[in-house]
């Protein structure tokens, strides 16, 4: 056993690459965003608020990034039945809103990126575009949102497939 473990993290240059790639995607889809990049402790490394983005998305995008960094999973994956309780238990710093993505490379969570101001799926697409700026970053393509933000989810019920 050892008292030290290997860790990896983005440099400021790496965080700025993530931020700029996310801004490029938000511009491409025509949706101004607030974009946050945080370290694995949830501390802000880089942030951008595009002209025309929502002021309330400043806090939510930082919380999305923080949640992803600390949990190691994309935001929006907790079931709607527990999201309010978990948010309260974490003093409103945890969120289940879609759009936060850990930046994982070769099994290491380096940091996290999140976007806010669009729909959940737009936010996730912009976060993925940011993460892809880091070679070999996991895009979490098998991620399935489960929160109240997702269409068709009603608390206490299971969504029925449409035919």
From TrEMBL:
<dbReference type="Pfam" id="PF03928">
    <property type="entry name" value="HbpS-like"/>
</dbReference>
<dbReference type="InterPro" id="IPR052517">
    <property type="entry name" value="GlcG_carb_metab_protein"/>
</dbReference>
<dbReference type="InterPro" id="IPR038084">
    <property type="entry name" value="PduO/GlcC-like_sf"/>
</dbReference>
<dbReference type="InterPro" id="IPR005624">
    <property type="entry name" value="PduO/GlcC-like"/>
</dbReference>
<protein>
    <submittedName>
        <fullName>Heme-binding protein</fullName>
    </submittedName>
</protein>
